[in-house]
Amino acid sequence: MVGSMNNDKIVCEEKKHLGGKMVKVCIKAGENNVKGIIITGDFFAEPEEKFDEIIRKLIDLEAGLDDALTNTMNIFRNENIKLYGISLEDIEDVVKRAITRLKRQ
User: Domain holding 49: CATH number?
Assistant: First the structure.
């Protein structure tokens, strides 16, 4: 999915983990920067409070397109959470694909 608000773009990518659940990433971006990332899906994360903290940080994330993936993964790695139904690598893959689409536009 590709949408736009003002001059901002919204790009979404999703992935179904083999034998597991789905993860969807939507990135709001300006010209050459990310203005927020939302991660949703039918997976589980524990503790939920930590995952909620991650989501709040990602919604407010502002970074250049080249730094957004690293920043996103650092946020996840700095919090001690367990993911069920997806892996951290799934999140990384979907974020990377969304950023690649943004760079092509």
Answer: 3.30.390.50
Cα–Cα dist 27/12, whole Å: 6
As a whole number of angstroms, the distance between CA 75 and CA 68 comes to 11
According to the model, what pLDDT value does residue 3 have?
52
Alpha-carbon distances, residue 19 vs 15, 16, 29, 73 (angstroms): 12, 8, 32, 23
- The H or E element spanning position 30 is none
pLDDT tens figures, 28-69 = 999 889 999 999 999 999 999 999 999 999 999 999 999 999
Contact 54, 23 (CB under 8 A): no
The pLDDT score that the predictor gives to residue 105 is 82
Number of domains in the chain: 1
Domain assignment of residue 87, given as a range: 2-104
Q: Report pLDDT for 18.
A: 84
